[in-house]
Amino acid sequence: MSDKIIRLKRTAWGAIVVLGLLGVFWQAGCKMQTKEIKKETGKLEKIKAAGKIVVGTSADYPPYEFHLLPELQDDMVGIDIDIAEAIAANLNVKLEIRDVVFSTLFDELIAERIDLALAGLSPTDSRRQIADFSIPYYQAIQNMLIRAADKDKIKLLDDLRGKVVGTQKGSIQEDMARNLIPGAAFVIHESISELINALRQQKLDAILLEKPVADAYAFKNKDLLNLECDTDSLPLGSAIAVRKGDKDLLERVNKILEVLIRENKITEFIQDAKVFTDKI
User: Fold this and answer.
1) pTM for the whole thing?
2) SS3 category, 92
3) Considering only Cβ atoms within 10 Å of each terminal Cβ, which end of the chain, N or C, has fewer?
4) DSSP state of 233
5) Residue range 105-111: average pLDDT?
6) Which spans in 152-239 are helix H?
7) Whole-number Å distance between alpha carbons of 154 and 113
8) Shared domain check, 254 and 115
9) Nearest to 59 by CA among 168, 152, 146, 144
10) Sign of CA pseudo-dihedral 240, 84, 269, 173
11) The domain containing residue 190 runs over which residues?
């Protein structure tokens, strides 16, 4: 074999090796770039890619969310359910609603088992430390629900001193009760239904609830009476919670809420919910 042929072969093999190495580096670069893109993909894009949005709620809180009939566990209605449906429609994805224990909602959100928490949530300072919140979509005042037979004995929050007061675990009313009613005993339950049963059975003297929720239970239980109580020096309203850092999803949710509020859809949802609460 001549020296010229040997030199040509060596040049050819060298070119092949260089091209091969360039291919390896290019593939590695693409993989790294793909990983970076995947890592930087926002929550909103992940939801669209999955084709569904998972909303967590606690469905014993009319008119926000509740089961229309006890035997239809998947049939939930209410203000928050209508808002969730509007969000899913705007994103053009399917809606999956998970009914969880109220006090675990933020755990579910942090663990990314749900994309949104929509359950009449007030954006308190302590909650803002673990989640981000949308603009408020509804503002309600606080009530105390009592037995109608006690209407002459209990008229103000001060009348609950020395009595037994019930609140839902993890609710803002739990903190309110402890701060505003010194000398009372407190009973904390996971569900509002448990509190209502305890009140009717005279195991409690009152329950602190938002007015629309108290209205719904008082309508259903004629032996109960709801009274307004002055607890809202700084009303927080109800807002939607998203996981910390899900800015793109939060921005989109806020835009959707702005449209719903501007077009009076929230008011329509409230009226629809009132019709449903008359049937529970």
Assistant:
1) 0.78
2) coil
3) N
4) S
5) 97
6) 172-180, 192-200, 211-220
7) 43
8) yes
9) 168
10) negative
11) 142-228
Higher pLDDT, 242 or 17: 242
Q: Are 178 and 186 spatial neighbours (Cβ–Cβ below 8 Å)?
A: yes
With a CB cutoff of 8 Å and minimum separation 6, the contacts of 200 are 147, 221, 223, 224
**Whether 247 contacts 255, CB under 8 Å:** no
Tell me: do 69 and 113 sit in the same domain: yes
pLDDT of 132-177, one tens digit each?
A: 999 999 988 889 999 999 999 999 999 999 999 999 999 999 988 9
Q: How far is residue 181's CA from residue 7's CA, in Å, rounded to a whole number?
A: 95
Structural domains of the chain, count: 2
Percentages helix, strand, coil for the chain (3-state, rounded to 5) are: 50, 20, 30
Type of residue found at 204: L
Contact 145, 219 (CB under 8 A): no
Q: How many residues does the chain have?
A: 280
The verdict on 54 and 188 lying in the same domain is: no
